[in-house]
User: What shape does this take?
Amino acid sequence: MEFSRELLESESVKTPDATCRLTLHREDFSALYPGMLRFVLDAADPNRSPARFITNTYEYSPLLPGSAESAARQMMAIWKEDLLRDPDVVFHEYSRPRKDRPVRPIDLLILQGSPRPDGNCAILAEWAVGAAHEAGKTASVIYPHDLDLHPCIGCYQCYNTGTCVFDDDMNDIIAAVRGASLIIVCSPVYSNTVPAGLKLVIDRMQAFHAERALGGGGRCRHGLVFSVAGRKGKGNFACITSVLSAFFHTLGIELAGEVLMDDADSVRDIRTIAGKEEMVKALVKNHL
Ligand SMILES: Cc1cc2nc3c(=O)[nH]c(=O)nc-3n(C[C@H](O)[C@H](O)[C@H](O)COP(=O)(O)O)c2cc1C
Assistant: This one.
């Protein structure tokens, strides 16, 4: 995505051992979110690796005093003082985030949303893994409910750096999504939507959306939705399919197919439905 960039301020500061250049830019991110602006403060010194501070307007919720621009200008003033005294304070604390991000290449990645390791979604996931292996492909299943994941706090700082402020198991999930060719979200219907653990992953995937928006790119991928509802009737999937297609859209993944199995509380074990396993496996193989 292309964003326009405008220089707001620039200044040279004589530090004890060099001349440091400070710049403050405003970047217009409204192509991503209405009215989003980023303020990017950079410090460049011939003897040190660059320092950077970024803040964006979405970080400042209505009751929060101040603004992104005032915070960036305030930081510039603090940096000027610190550079005169001890430049290492600035360059150590604000060294630019690493650009290289781990990628784990895999043919099929399944996000298995059911907290029940032996339920119908687990059976669907097992069929999908079986299909991948039969086709000589690699596959992996992620169970969000077993992981250490903090809920998204809506801080919007991922749009500054392309990474989340939390350092937990979501890093591994994003690394897996980065390298996956086909992604299947496999989820029971809970209160018309996805279970809490999977919802948490969906929200935290905002950091991956930010990474892509900031230039992470990513390969062209396909996604499938597998879902199981206890109640009878395809209407039980109206909300979950809308949530999951929005999720794929946010990640730049094309939704290529769905398997929606209702009445599961009466059927109990979907392995008793004739032809289902073959149908699911054929769909998976078709998209690998
Ligand atoms: C907390 C909770 C909420 C549920 N909400 C719905 C619902 O809104 N609609 C529905 O059809 N089934 C609902 N169900 C039933 C599950 O979708 C159904 O039992 C499903 O087969 C479970 O999948 P699993 O075997 O993979 O765990 C709910 C089940 C639980 C535990």
